[in-house]
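quick one, two chains, predict together pls
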Amino acid sequence: MIRILDPTLATAAAPATAPRAPRAATLRGATLGLLANGKSNGMALLDRIALHLQERHGVDQVVRVEKTNASAPVRDEDAELLVKRCAAVVTAIGD
Amino acid sequence: MGAVTTRPGLDVSDPWSAIEACYAQGWTDGLPVVPPTEALVDAMLAAGPWLPDHALLHEPVRDRSVTAEKAAINAVMAGCRPEYFPVVGAALLAIGDPEFMLHGPATSTGGSALMVIVNGPVRERLGVNARANLFGPGARANATIGRVLRLVLLNCLDCRPGILDKSTQGWPGKYSLCFAEEEAASPWEPLHVSRGLPPASSAVTVYAAESGHNVLSHGTSDPERLLTCFADAMAGLGSLSPGRSVIVFAPEHAAYLARAGWSRRQVQEWLYAHAWRSMADLKRGGKVEPAFFTNPSLVDWLYRDSPAGPPDPLPGPDDAEDVRREDEAVRVHRGLGPDDILLAVGGGEAGGHSAFFPSWSRGRSVPFVTKEVPI
């Protein structure tokens, strides 16, 4: 028999995963985060979604964060802002 | 075979079933791979300076790390000889540099290839082709070193076509796009020296490339006439963007520039100055999107060489595509300046065929990154 080695990360040590945040019980009166990924129309799409969520589900304030570049990870300070202020976050690509 | 191993993998009966097993597992780029046996992987690892668990590449958006051992497995599969591994590792370090922002070129609809340009003494030692057909088939080092990057993206970063790799079309350079610079035919210092490394070092320079354009010129040795062809290719609306450019001059074209005494900087400045289209042309071709006018960096690109600066107020979403009389005089250049044009030399002795590779993306795309090969 020949052993061939696994070229994938499937069996490698899993990256440290953050625990999932608890689901928001309601959006009524909540602060909603919008995270656009840096594409041209991401925030335009998210603003429409936020409007619907305000009208239909009583979302109160909206916090907007835009990545500087679609290829880059979200900045630490932006991620912290969303964690601190928002009950839920919606993200979108909006190319 | 040797002692019982704890390294994860598959047990197969013979090399041919190993090749088929790799297909069945989805571990290939579509071409057959060399079965990564432990002995071959250990020999690959031993040829580099990295410990097996050293992370050669960390992709921050999805938090994935590729160790030297995983890189070595994929290098064996790609067909590399062990002595190629220091170049493979340097290329992985380069595409993993945070500046390179790999997530975009690895996944975008733009379908870019990861270009690797090799400089320095390692070219001769490994036989990385810089001469005839340097972008095409025939040289093991070119074919396999570039292939490792794609296999790592497929196998370690899960960039599967149509799933995470959303390339609308892609292009054949995505299998492998690795070549050496023909330093002896260059009018200038080698590429890696121009990027700050010592002449005696070996290096790789990486770039996220759209498919290359042949720039054919057999009719002139005059540098400005010759470069007119390049500037015209660079100004094509299909690829026009604020992104970077790679030009690989054929030795024949390089010799004309050398004879005329043109410096690298002079060529970069001339090409930047002449690779432009009018704002009116961009609008006629639908290349100005309404959202561009809400993006300060794109407004800067569109009007950076316009003496009058951006119109005040800026066009709104409804009239962004309207061609105005003043748009005829606004020159929109490829890239943001001469430094965005990387010049290298390569190809056979005969023929006036050079190449222009546009950056991937309709935006700024990612930078050139150069890393020394640790030998």
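Residues 32-92 of chain A form one domain.
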